[in-house]
């Protein structure tokens, strides 16, 4: 047992995909020409006044409700004061002691253990501009110059702060993945880590096992994948333990994850809330969330990942299938749900969705929204397989045809001549022909060489053009041989 216990909290920033920015009418977009989606408010020019985006506040409340938070009846914006090149007005509109959402939780499962992670708060703020460091590696420490793009400045940004309830890098990764799934399910954000629309920072400390008091906290940034998040936290835990065990002292700081080096690097000392000199923004009125609005938002929540996992578990799916299917794209889940509702076997349907259907989409580079394969199609295909109308291998070809727009599974199987032969008379004729041509195989089988049956089945399948039902072929061969 380790003598050290990690203590981990995660801060998540989610860019909302509203049409306009948080406090002005500029469009929210990704990948546009630099500094084309800006206005005096984005740039903090004198005399420009902010106006709150009501849709963004409702979407924040949706996130809070999905995370079981308490929604404050009233809330205010504050100014978070700091100086950085990508923040032209030298303060960020954010929230401090009166956030919209507080005291929630999210349950995650790691290695069969269910963990409830507390959500301290979820509040609204505006995103900053983007610094583009020029030079080798695109990192600030090696940059020859820095360019600024303010298209992102003012984009609605929700910060979700967990309580320090996580105790391993694996738990942190599971929490991040589940939280991203919740945000994506709500439809309030693209939640794409590769585009920066969801970003994770980790606060990590270690303490002697059994000690109540927290150790010195270090914040880690620049983790742009779930794998990076887990690696960075694991590396930082090892670093902190090594420092303490050699008599060193940890410093409260912000560290940068270096993917290539596989280690965190010091960036700057960590600020405290007093360093930001928060005060209420005088240009923005307090927000009031009416009970009727909260009830409407709550009633409009979709099925969330945890609820879906529970529903799939009750269908008899193994945990691996439950997790893979639950995290699949909504179009694939819809095909599965429709097929099961029409009577398809849940396990067979889940295996096909997570296996052959997903593989076919990748192979043809087809988006799920463009997929020509429905719940009734899956139901029909599975029925044909279970009734022996098509073989398992032929069913994959049928799937390809359906997804190419050739018609229903039955029509594709007929058109491609894939209907399986189940007529005993026709198969028996092929069996007699094969046994007559292979008398030595009969002798070997009757002498106890069981594996010969596989050879004979293959010969019958070849004689029938691969259309015979393999199970029926096996049965009729054994009858003939006995």
Domains counted in the coordinates: how many? 3
Could you tell me the mean pLDDT? 90
Hey, roughly how much beta strand do the residues contain? Answer: 15-25%
Kindly state the number of beta strands: 16
Structure in a nutshell:
By secondary structure, the protein is of the alpha+beta class. The protein contains 15 helices and 16 strands. Helix 2 runs antiparallel to helix 3 and helix 14 crosses helix 15 (470-481).
Task: Please describe what this structure looks like.
The termini are far apart. 38% of the residues lie in helices and 21% in strands. The strands form four sheets. A nine-stranded mixed sheet has the order 2-6-7-10-1-11-12-13-14. Strands 5-4-15 form a three-stranded antiparallel sheet, with no helix packed on it. A two-stranded antiparallel ribbon has the order 3-16. The model has no long low-confidence stretch (mean pLDDT 90). 33% of the residues are buried. It has three domains: 292 residues, no CATH class; 113 residues, no CATH class; 58 residues, Orthogonal Bundle (Arc Repressor Mutant, subunit A).
Offer a few descriptive terms:
about 20% strand, alpha+beta, 3 domains, nine-stranded mixed sheet, about 475 residues, Arc Repressor Mutant, subunit A
List the helices and strands and how they pair.
Blueprint: E1 4-15, H1 54-66, E2 70-71, E3 74-75, E4 78-81, E5 91-94, E6 101-110, E7 113-126, E8 130-134, E9 145-149, E10 156-162, H2 169-186, E11 198-208, E12 218-223, H3 226-245, E13 253-258, E14 263-269, E15 279-280, E16 287-288, H4 291-299, H5 305-313, H6 319-326, H7 330-341, H8 346-364, H9 375-386, H10 392-403, H11 409-415, H12 424-437, H13 439-446, H14 452-463, H15 470-481
Parallel strand pairs: 12-13
Antiparallel strand pairs: 1-10, 1-11, 2-6, 3-16, 4-5, 4-15, 6-7, 7-10, 8-9, 11-12, 13-14
Helix pairs in contact: 1-4, 2-3, 5-6, 7-8, 7-9, 9-10, 10-11, 12-14, 12-15, 14-15
